[in-house]
Amino acid sequence: MPPPEHMGWFVVHPSIDTTEGRSVRIFEFLHQPNDAVLSPWARHFRQHYCLDTDIDVLRGGTGLERTDFLLERIFPNADNPGPAVRAGDFAEILVSDFLEYSLDHWVPRWRFSEKATPNESVKGTDIIGLRICPSGNTHQDTLTTFEVKAQFSGRRAKPRLQDAVDDAAKDRVRQGYTLLAMKRRAHLIGDAERVAMVERFQMKADRPFTEQVGAAAVVNNSVFDTDLIAATSTVAHPAGTSLLLLVIRGEDLMTLAHNLYERAANEA
Q1: Burial class (CB in 10 A: 0-12, 13-18, 19+), 9
Q2: Total-model pTM
Q3: Number of domains comprising the chain
Q4: Distance between CA atoms of 250 and 1, rounded to whole angstroms?
Q5: Binning pLDDT at 50, 70 and 90, where does residue 129 land?
Q6: Cα 29 to Cα 108, 220, 250, 256, distances in angstroms
Q7: Which of 48-62, 123-137, 164-178, 213-227 is predicted least confidently?
Q8: Element of type H or E holding 46
Q9: What strands, in cross-sheet order, belong to the sheet with 210-220?
Q10: Cα dist. 122→85, 103, 111, 127, 237 in Å?
Q11: Is 116 helix (H, G, I), strand (E, B) or coil?
């Protein structure tokens, strides 16, 4: 299956080296007001929170039409504290798309559908992706976790990549619980293939695989700061850790996020 068309909006920029010699991959997300791309992207976005086949069942008894149900009960709200949650969720979904379609991982998309309330951030590892090596070399099967931080507003850049790096160091503790949750969800929907795929990564000592830790910052162009990125330190990670450092920048990302939520609701 070809990648969704919004992936074509990723443009590669020269990498930035940190003062410790780590390479940070830089992408700009050059989004366009193209309905032919935005509509399928909005649908893809909506499925993270509620499958289209489930909307009518879930809104039954609420008296709400589809659009209002999604905006009021499912999506983070447009009013505070919703925008900060929208920014965080949007950033996680965008990095999930990058991991799945650019780095060829399977990335489960159930995380946001299990929120108790719309304006909360989901606990646990932000993103986890699994990749089975096509050549059959099991040692090159890859488990990648990503911690994602966003900054879509403000006049001064915050060290969001550093924040992501620091939190990514905690993901080893949470990883086992996240894998179990993935396996449980796959079992509940009867996906035996995904159950087996998760199981392959649950005991590294007996079934070695490649492990990669990612830290990503998704930031508005107005707060993109090369010096702050270059100052990012990875000393909190054990020696030899395979680290993937990523920054995605873009123009008016908060406006884009709000518009995408509105479109996802209106076109349901």
Answers
A1: middle
A2: 0.94
A3: 1
A4: 27
A5: very high
A6: 22, 10, 5, 11
A7: 164-178
A8: helix 35-47
A9: 10-17, 23-29, 243-250, 210-220, 142-151, 127-131
A10: 10, 24, 7, 11, 23
A11: coil
